[in-house]
Specification:
By secondary structure, the protein is an all-beta fold. It has no helices and 11 strands. The protein is 0% helix and 54% strand. The radius of gyration is 13 Å and the shape is globular.
Length: 121
């Protein structure tokens, strides 16, 4: 039984920062690629960052240079540091586990509840 529990969201002004956390259980955490998705109102859920077991990371162009994904394998936790937030970053943020395959990231299992981020003045 895999559980993903996201936390750390909230209301922040444009230009501000938040750090999201995702605690994973029921998986062999160190053997999985972890990722973050987000879903803005009226839009499809999109992949924004992945991090491999040893820390190699990839980002969507929309967040590159502003967001940093990291992981602590000893704590089975993945993080998303979000800096210089913009109103268009407003979304529910979800974490995921999976693998890098030809063509991109393959997500496994079910979604967690997500955590809401609102960027507004």
């Amino acid at each position: 039984q895999v559980h993903l529990v996201e936390s750390g969201g909230g209301l922040v002004q444009p230009g501000g920062s938040l750090r999201l956390s995702c605690a994973a259980s029921g998986v062999i955490f160190s053997l999985n690629v972890m990722g973050w998705y987000r879903q803005a109102p009226g839009k499809e859920r999109e992949l924004i960052a992945t991090v491999a077991s040893a820390g190699s990371a990839n980002y969507a162009d929309s967040v590159k240079g502003r967001f940093t994904i990291s992981r602590d394998n000893a704590k089975n936790t993945v993080y998303l540091q979000m800096d210089n937030l913009k109103p268009e970053d407003t979304a529910v943020y979800f974490c995921a586990y999976g693998a890098i395959v030809p063509g991109g990231f393959k997500r496994f299992g079910s979604w967690g509840q997500g955590t809401q981020v609102i960027v507004s003045a």
